[in-house]
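Help wanted!
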Amino acid sequence: MLRLLRRTLTILFLLPASVMAQGLEDLVTSLPDGDFDDRAQVVNAIALSGDPRALNVLELLSDGQLSYLREDGRIVTVRDEGDDDVAYDVLSEERIGVVGRRDARDVRVNNGLRRDIAAAIGRMGLQNVDPAVRLDAAERAFRARDPEQIDALRAALAAETDPEVTTVFEQALAAAVLRSDAGEADKRIAIAALAARGDRDALSALSPALTDPVLAGEAQAATDKIERSIASWGLAQNLWYGISLGSVLMLAAIGLAITFGVMGVINMAHGELVMIGAYTTYLVQETIRNSFPEMFGWSLAIAVPLAFVTAGAVGVAIERGVVRYLYGRPLETLLATWGISLILQQAVRSIFGPNNREVGNPEWMSGAVDIGQMAMTWNRIWILVFALAVFAALMLVLKRTPIGLQMRAVTQNRAMAASVGIRTGWVDAMTFGLGAGVAGLAGVALSQIDNVSPNLGQSYIVDSFMVVVFGGAGNLWGAFAGAFSLGIANKFMEPWVGAVLAKILILVAIILFIQKRPRGLFALKGRAVDS
Amino acid sequence: MTKLIDRRMGFFLIALFIAVVAIPVGNLAIEGKPVASYVVQLSGKYLCYALLAVALDLVWGYCGILSLGHGAFFALGGYAMGMHLMREIGTRGVYGDPVLPDFMVFLSYEQLPWFWLGFDQFWFAALMCMLVPGALAFVFGWFAFRSRVSGVYLSIITQAMTYALMLSFFRNEMGFGGNNGLTDFKDVLGFDLQSDATRAGLFIASAVALVAGLMIAKAIALSQLGKVLIGIRDAESRTRFLGYRVEGYKLFVFVVSAMMAGVAGALYTPQVGIINPGEFSPANSIEIVIWVALGGRGTLVGAAIGAIFVALAKTLLTGWIPEMWLFALGGLFVFVTLFMPRGVLGVIEESWAKLRRTEPVKEVTP
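Answered by r_m:
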């Protein structure tokens, strides 16, 4: 420790004038000379040079990617290009040419030097004009926890104006202070700062204080607090994963719930209608890529109505062509729609090929947002929003429109509805079309998170059935509750038992649940049930 | 006895008898092998499918239970036999361990898991290939029928059952070989599985099992109990109000059917030489339903014919034009449900009756 401190002092204050005055080129060339201590001096000089290329050089050095040519001592990076190793000048990026294994030698680094480099990079970043770079440097410094950086951090903190960066500077300072032999008061403040940060890094930064006899109690309290905070963030993250899975399940299942609820038939081709929606998205994106690349951000907005119409039209065709001849025979309908699903699958495979098709995320859907210690990707957030919007729209259609009224009437009592003049056949066709259209919408969403392949529908079909059977038919809230409870339950079990076993347990749980409530959570009541 | 073997059963048994004599003789006894060995193997496989179809027809055709999980019973029977065949490999495996099958050595098992004990005995495996599917059907059916889960809901949860089993058997931790399943079998009861004579023997055994299955199913259908089953199929509530304990009847026939499917699976495994979790896939189970629907629901013989026909078509079509197979199968589902609700046998019998100007056989109207 003392040796390190002395060395830093030497570097900072007693650096030979000759080294200070040199340009970056000379400094870099002198890197291979001498031992690791000499190299550390050069590193610091490079950091202080203020040259914009210095960061790149130091990072390459730290990664062990710098070599020098035996011939003329030039410092190069050697890149692997096919079969050849090609040397590039590290500063000018000039291509020097193919080098053999013996022509270039590595500039060697050890762990001590790497730590010095990290500290030097940290100091360089701390003073940068760009707040993002300073933030990044502060995070690095936090992770480095190097007592030698305390002075640099203090200086940077004093000059800092950005509140977000200030917080991280304080935390970095705290982490470094706990490692140093600073006074008790300073360390108390440091513990408080780390407790406020509350994540796993803060936990490890606190560890030196735990062994300190004076501070152990306080540090222990802070550790406990952080562990609680980590646990609750973990819970929140799991909940988010569950909600996200639930939104996907709901999108996939809600169309099924509509047809099942109104017509009492299980549409086994539902998954393939989802697939059609996904392929519609693919076609829209292909067209946009080829003809109007600047509209790519709008591709999903265009795909949504198109997918609804395409899948809906296929749905109406299925209903008019096959399903309507099988009324009153739900099991036969199940078989016939299964046959249709095989045909649709093979048709897509024959047209588009068996491989996955590339569907891109528009820019506004990529990336992630961090809330506290929780990461939420934008595409998942948008899918949740989309699922809720689809649900709300369907609710409106069912509750506020004439066709919705008729659908509900047919659901509750088909014979009675027919005798008061509702064209039940027409309602069936519309219902089937609506359910299919919603499946198409689900396809647009799923194309953003899953592989678009002919098997897309198959992978969701059992899950969607589970949602419908669990939630109960005849009520959209059933699908809503079913999807989210299954999604959340699944994600909460996953950390304990693994993904596959979690799924198996959910299936078993549903099989058992059906024994208790043979018609799901939100069962229809009344005489219609017996038919 | 005369009723047990009616006209169509008679025709079928005669055809089956001819095949059972002709195929092995053509393969083994005649010079130049007019019947290739793979034909014997394939025919044996088809007969296993036929038995499976008969099992499903018993529950669906006579009791109205559309099980989308019969593939699970079939696969469980297949696994029970597969476990025995694995044990019979003995020291001839790649790792040469006298007790542990290869995959267990590979996954560094210390000893045989408890559920593998006893499978070195053939009689035990033979018992298990009926008992395990039977027990699963009993537990599942006891829960489901008692709480009156029926119709589409029952179909969906049977599908969930086979799906859950598929996921379980894919896991290496289950101790059933994970996604590779059980394979590399050497012999059964001391007979080399690769030899033509053993294959012919297995083929004949499958035929015997099929006949036995048909007879048992027919006997059930003709008995007093069979009449109640048909009553349950056509009007479950009414049957219940007449004082029959519907769930007991359903449970009985479901368990018998599951055991039959298990036997089919047990005969299937040695003939194809592998059993893996893919057999549990929900798609397989639905395919069984189309065999029955095509041949004629509630005809037993029709189910067997449907299975043989579809399996044969699959072998031929996937060989000639692979892309067409799913179109054909899908089209078959739609066509049969729309235009032939009583299946091929129903159509034939109707036209036969028209020709003879007599009433069609009344006994089977689903």
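OP: Thanks! One thing I noticed: The CA atoms of residues 3 and 222 of chain B lie 8 Å apart.
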